């Protein structure tokens, strides 16, 4: 029997859509490309949700009003965001947690060292895996059917209306459909095509590590854009990209592969040169630009260098880095030119100006006369032992997606579809043109997943009513 609503995907946005549609009385079928053990996409690797709140609320301290959230988003995106949809996401983040709790999600105060986000982000008890499992349990109770290892390879669309989806040779009709199948970050060929050759004979995408699921290959995204003329949003080279441990596995290393000491030291490339301001802003607002910065360096590798003064001030990596008692010894251990490395470190140390160091605020420890500068938290690297972590670009999700509006409808030729909707990574580029701030991906997925599910149920009910009167 055909479902009222078909949800394609299996992560947070897809689950929110399925739950909302089921709550609205629709019969729902979810198609998840991954096996059951790997269900949930990138959502299984998440930890928290960025939340607007005007006063202290359970696990959130102080206040984080709409305007501050908006200004944070505006700053990290450089203005590449749709303000209407961004503010919709922000406002929705203030009211979604009670609904999440009703579906089994539990929250906890942030752990010590969790990026100073007790004011802005609500952490999931047990992380994203627990959230995903809670939603699947709730979906099952509501009668949502879930099929695993069911990748959809194409859709039938007539005049902007969804008709059916194809899983291999199987055709599945539905009254409405929600697309929440992720970006194309695990499609190496598409990444190579987007990034191209860098003029040094290198294809940067060949050295990208995929932080999350191997199943987000962008098959439906490309199909909608190329074959059906769906309206697009975003730059295919923009993504949530983090500087992660160069030793990380190719897929599913998740959050534990991140290196969080960047703002406490300096970062040098293979030529032992600094290339960006490590202290530009708080790490939660800047960690997701460093993957892209490293991707632009020779060999797509860089080295985060700290001294003993930084230890204990950041979430330690899973594996120890390279350690040495002297800076020349550290350069040798990293395989960097010792003379060039020492020139960079001595110039940095000499440029540091005395101040009152405080990593919990934008302090006055800065460099002077140095390019690039270090704007905050600049202290000489002079106290052994010295540590360094080799980092590579870790791509979480891509920002190229489907243009949408407040209804979460997919758009064709300037018109919204009446029964095809989109949520999560497939439309995040409407809010995130570039950059990132911690937890906002889950805010977008939750807001638009719920909107898409609700509107898909209404669209399916309208179609059912039309058929009944036909």
TrEMBL record:
InterPro entries: CobZ, FAD-dep_OxRdtase_2_FAD-bd, FAD-oxidoreductase_2, FAD/NAD-bd_sf, Succ_DH/fumarate_Rdtase_cat_sf. One of its GO terms (molecular function) is oxidoreductase activity. Residues 4-431 form the FAD-dependent oxidoreductase 2 FAD-binding domain. The keyword Transmembrane does not apply. SUPFAM superfamilies: FAD/NAD(P)-binding domain, Succinate dehydrogenase/fumarate reductase flavoprotein, catalytic domain. Its cofactor is FAD. Keywords: FAD, Flavoprotein, Oxidoreductase. This is Precorrin 3B synthase CobZ. It comes from Rubrivivax gelatinosus (strain NBRC 100245 / IL144). The lineage of its organism: Bacteria, Pseudomonadati, Pseudomonadota, Betaproteobacteria, Burkholderiales.
